[in-house]
Amino acid sequence: MRIAMIGTGYVGLVSGVCFSDFGHEVVCVDKDAKKIERLRAGEVPIFEPGLEDLLAKNTASGRLSFTTDLVEAMEGAEAVFIAVGTPTRRGDGHADLTYVMAAAEEIAQTAKGYVVVVTKSTVPVGTNRKVRQTIHKANPDLEFDVASNPEFLREGAAIDDFMRPDRVVVGVQNPRAAEVMNEIYRPLFLRDFPVVVTDLESAELIKYAANAFLAAKITFINEIAALCERVGADVKEVAKGIGLDGRIGNKFLHAGPGFGGSCFPKDTKALARIGQEYAVPMQITETVIKVNDEIKRRMIDKLLDLCGGSFNGKTVAVFGVTFKPNTDDMRDAPSLTIIPALVGGGAKVKVVDPQGRHEGEALLPGVSWQDDPYKAARNADLVVILTEWNEFRGLDLKRIAKHMQTPHMADLRNIYSAHDAKKAGFAAYVAVGRPALLAD
Predict the structure, then answer these.
(1) How many Cα atoms occupy the beta-carbon half-sphere of 263 within 13 Å?
(2) Chain-centroid distance, C-alpha 174
(3) How far is CA 130 from CA 4, 59, 93, 102, 125, in A?
(4) Strand order in 25-29's β-sheet?
């Protein structure tokens, strides 16, 4: 099957590459000529493990190509995916559908025969029907269907998520569109991965509901972590105890500095806005948004305590700035709240991140970028672990503590323990929801 993929951002590029690996002929189209040139040269503009190799493999096979010309991409295509950005709209928290509707207009002007227009972007309920109306108004004679096919890709594990999904969700209006979508996902269906075929509105809402639920789970354990600190409990033990309940499960029960990234912050705000529009307030989701912001600010208080109440004149080494490991994504990362507070308070901040510098240099002015955590920590007053990259999981804590000005650590990902820190020579150590080692 020939597929056109509009948009070569994170979702569009990963989806296009993976569809081509299924055996489909995929043409990815983007208006950014420089990006298309890089992709044609085999350069991947984002960091995602395994993506560069898979792109090279399928480009070499002839199944995957890139263009700036939508006419070329649509030629003979049986399905065209809209995978453009839907950023949070300023002022009201809703998803901005400007790029989605612009893509729909262009499809209407370009398509020559029957095609299924598939919305891969995360969009509010009712968007696919608006896409249909837009296309029909622009080209009343065009024979087409619309489908909703939300993505559930975790950054850092996107290839595996696409190839071995928990489920594929497809929203359609009629059997003909369902047949096309079933053919696209046939390789997964043959391997017994669930393909949920439903209506448009249900498919649209599934994506928001899933992300809001996971965000709530993260926020819940972070609130429990704060309580653990007051009562002397260990949030890791609490999470283990509740996670063994099959009704709860152990995933997304890792306490930390709050969620970030491209999905949870944007999608929770959008779901809250959808609830307001339909007069069904999403009170739990609204609270999750509020509490997550408070959690990030609470981390700053932890650091202040370790610095004696003031950041002024202190040297702080920060390990990790991306919102999670195995990605270069900085969107809504806790570092964007915490590091500016350090810099604004007068601290000298040295940052180490395996992939964060490319985006981080523009987003985190006033910091010094380092390649080596040991050099970054030398003569520092405080070390802060913000992202749980593998590179930070097996550090020689004794070596770090030995060369610090003041051996204090804020382990905001609970990688180590107070016992580890004390054994290594740290005078003070705090985690999230776990016993601390406090200086006398």
Answers:
(1) 20
(2) 32
(3) 20, 34, 19, 12, 10
(4) 64-67, 25-29, 2-6, 79-82, 115-119, 144-148, 168-171, 195-198
Nearest-CA neighbor of 229 among 433, 438, 439, 436? 433
Tokens of 287: 């609270």
Contact 124, 204 (CB under 8 A): yes
CA atoms within 13 A on the CB side of 378: 6
Q: φ, ψ for residue 65 (rounded to 5)? A: -145, 170
Domains of the chain: 2-198 (3.40.50.720), 199-440 (3.40.50.720)
Instruction: Identify the CA nearest to 428 among candidates 418, 439, 412.
Output: 439
Angle at 393 between CA 392 and CA 396, to 5 degrees: 75
Q: Is 430 helix (H, G, I), strand (E, B) or coil?
A: strand
Beta bridge partners of 128: none
Strands 115-119 and 144-148 come out as parallel
Q: Does residue 163 contact residue 136 with C-beta atoms inside 8 Å?
A: no
SS3 146: strand
CA atoms of 142 and 135, how far apart (whole Å) = 8
The arithmetic mean of pLDDT across residues 347-368, rounded, is: 96
Helix (H) or strand (E) holding 196: strand 195-198
Active site residue 263: yes
Residue for token digits 């810099």? Answer: 343
Structure tokens at 340: 């500016």
Catalytic entry in 18, 28, 228, 263 = 263
Identify each DSSP E strand in 345-440 by its residue range. 348-352, 368-370, 382-385, 408-411, 428-430
Nearest to 18 by CA among 152, 128, 214: 152
Spatial separation of the C-alpha atoms in residues 181 and 147, rounded to whole Å: 8
**Residue 276 DSSP SS3:** helix
Residue 95's contacts (CB-CB under 8 Å, 6 or more residues apart) are 86, 87, 88, 89, 122, 123, 124, 266, 270
Question: What long-range pairs does 128-136 form, CB within 8 A, spacing at least 24?
Answer: 128/171, 128/200, 128/204, 129/200, 130/97, 130/101, 131/82, 131/100, 131/101, 131/104, 134/101, 134/104, 134/105, 134/108, 135/104, 135/105, 135/107, 135/108, 136/108
3-class secondary-structure state, position 129: helix
Quote the pLDDT of residue 439: 77
What is the pTM assigned to this prediction?
0.92
pLDDT at 284 over 80: yes
Q: What is the pLDDT of residues 194-209, one digit of tens each?
A: 999 999 999 999 999 9
Q: Please name the helix (run of DSSP H) or strand (run of DSSP E) that holds residue 66, with its range, or none.
A: strand 64-67
